[in-house]
Structures are given as structure tokens and as C-alpha cells.
Amino acid sequence: MTLHKEQLEEFKRLYKIEYGEDICDDMARELATNLVLLFKEIYRPIPPDFEDLDTGSIEK
Fold first, then answer.
1. Beta strand residue intervals within 1-60, DSSP E
2. Which candidate, 16, 30, 42, 58, has a CA 20 to 30 Å from the CA of 6?
3. CB contact at 8 A, 28 and 15
């Protein structure tokens, strides 16, 4: 996965805001890549029949 320089700089800027630390390009590239890969693993479209599931304790 290749990040453009602008994307890398934006990630570093957001990291600095959130954690108060500057990070090098290599660390930013590793963290950003891991974040994107995590989202690719966990993101799934909600199935159309999701509303039909009996959730038990959740009431509308």
C-alpha cells in the first residue's frame, strides 16, 4: 500500500493533535497502513436482513 506524501503529512498532523508527539515518516507510514488494513478487515456492509435479527435486550 502506497501513501501519497500529502496523506502521510495529514496523518502526521492528526497524530500530533491526538497524541502530542511528532513521528517520523517511517512510523507514520507503518501506523497509517496498519489502520487502513484494520478498517479493511472490520468494515463490512450491513446485511439487508440485519433489522430482522432478534437483539433481545435492545428495544426501539
1. none
2. 42
3. yes
